[in-house]
Amino acid sequence: MLISSDGASEWWGYKPVDKTPRSVSSCSSRESEQGRFTSPTSSSRESSMASLRSALQGLGASRRCSARPWFLTRIRANTFRAFSTNLSPPSRAFVYEQHGPPDQVLRMIDLPPVEVKENDVCVKMLAAPINPSDINTIEGVYPARPQLPAIGGREGVGEVHAVGSAVKSLSVGDRVIPSPPSFGTWQTYVVKEESVWHKVNKNVPIEYAATVTVNPLTALRMMEDFVKLNPGDAIVQNGSSSMVGQCIIQLARIQGVQSINIIRERPGSEELREKLKKLGANEVFTENQLEVKNLKSLLDNIQEPVLGFNCVGGNSASLVLKFLRQGGTMVTYGGMAKKPITVSTSSFIFKDLSLRGFWLQKWMSAEKTQDCRVMIDHLLSLVQRREIKYEMELVPFCNFDTALNKALGKLGSQPKQVLTF
């Protein structure tokens, strides 16, 4: 199911940053003609200077305020140079100045134009997802954290709005994604160096281009990096309804590998089972169905899995281990249950099982930008051939609070939330 909504209205005026906390749902409906900016008065510029200095530090634009902020050197007679070749349009963004619950610490602010230097590219964002890693980063529990204050989001897709004089590989109108993922995608305009951006095919739906660099790439790497899988082999996983889980099912199907999938007992579990089977899942079990002594008796013409994937932890991870064959490997890439993994001594001694971990951020840190982009192009080609698909819900940027509540699980199980700008 793909639920589309109209994009949020554009904001073309500059508004000084208000340090008073604002609801994430507050989104101006005012619009004006492209290129026409309202200008702050002299007094408003002076009063907002201190708050802007704080808000702009570390927001991903690689610009810092000094005693005389860079943006004031470009403002004359209260007028913005709207079509200047070295200024981006003003932007609005969801930022956080301290770590904590996202629905409490995030607020929307308006940012002034940013200088587009000779090697920079200004991108108008089109779509950006809300991932669990985004939430963990805001909470302060994710290992990779930007300097505060920071703009939320790490992946997305946009259209090139302007380029610096030295930029050669990109042109205005190109569709691009940050690759590897880069902090600060929850804003209407992003200015970063040319090397950050990877051009993608415009025929790829924006929701797929916006979400390819984290979850599908994680699934692809885990399927290839730990065990050599041959046609007829089997894998087992929990968290099968997640985006990574859905991608694993389909990548396994493409390789001729069978998949055993574990889901939580929930309302609509039968409907979910059928959805996963349509993606290519061979078996789908709820955790309650697996409370039997001999799990393997439940399998019909499926080999014992050689590889397992765990993103839940606790008892669900133990179920993955029980399915594995002699010498099998379980890869952990998440811990949604926030419970430890308990492994019996016999699993190591008599079954010779291996436990591994995977974190995409660490894999990318090893100077693998080009490898990453080759895999992204491969995954997007699978999307274009309709060999990979997954559930998403498109939500206008103005309805960020609703999307965030869904991403936080406050409204029950929901598809991946993708913001549109």
From TrEMBL:
Top-level taxon of origin: Eukaryota
UniProt keyword Lipid metabolism, yes or no: yes
Location within or outside the cell: Mitochondrion
Subunit structure: Homodimer.
Gene Ontology biological-process entries: fatty acid biosynthetic process
Protein name: Enoyl-[acyl-carrier-protein] reductase, mitochondrial
Keywords: Fatty acid biosynthesis, Fatty acid metabolism, Lipid biosynthesis, Lipid metabolism, Mitochondrion, NADP, Oxidoreductase, Transit peptide
Annotated organism of origin: Dioscorea zingiberensis
Catalytic activity annotation: a 2,3-saturated acyl-[ACP] + NADP(+) = a (2E)-enoyl-[ACP] + NADPH + H(+)
UniProt lineage: Eukaryota, Viridiplantae, Streptophyta, Embryophyta, Tracheophyta
Signal peptide extent: none
Chief location: mitochondrion
GO cellular component: mitochondrion
InterPro entries linked to this entry: ADH-like_C (IPR013149), ADH-like_N (IPR013154), ER (IPR020843), GroES-like_sf (IPR011032), Mito_Enoyl-ACP_Reductase (IPR051034), NAD(P)-bd_dom_sf (IPR036291)
Family statement drawn from the similarity comment of this UniProt entry: Belongs to the zinc-containing alcohol dehydrogenase family. Quinone oxidoreductase subfamily.
Ranges for region Disordered: 15-48
Composition bias, Low complexity: 38-48
